[in-house]
Write a structure and sequence with these properties.
Layout: H1 4-14, E1 16-17, H2 19-30, H3 36-50, E2 55-56, H4 57-78
Parallel strand pairs: 1-2
Helix pairs in contact: 1-2, 1-3
């Protein structure tokens, strides 16, 4: 079984947290099959993300969606 710390290590090494990896971690946390080392790894990932050393696919998708909605609203407002 995959461990949270393994998902975190891959994300930090790649500098990117995919949506799939994020979902895996959510599932692992929900399963209650994690320990303090996993929690510490997750906290390290959060710090790396806040320091812009790891990009999150989910945030990129959210930002694209927001930008698209903003552009659509502006386009509708111009007509």
């Amino acid at each position: 079984m995959l461990l949270i710390r393994e998902v975190v290590q891959e994300a930090i090494a790649a500098g990117y947290l995919s949506l799939e990896a994020e979902n895996q971690m959510q599932h692992l946390f929900a399963s209650a099959k994690w320990d303090l080392e996993d929690l510490n790894a997750f906290m390290s990932l959060q710090l790396a993300s806040m320091a812009c050393r790891v990009k999150q696919e989910s945030l990129e998708l959210s930002n694209l969606r927001d930008l698209s909605e903003k552009n659509l609203t502006q386009t509708i407002g111009e007509h």
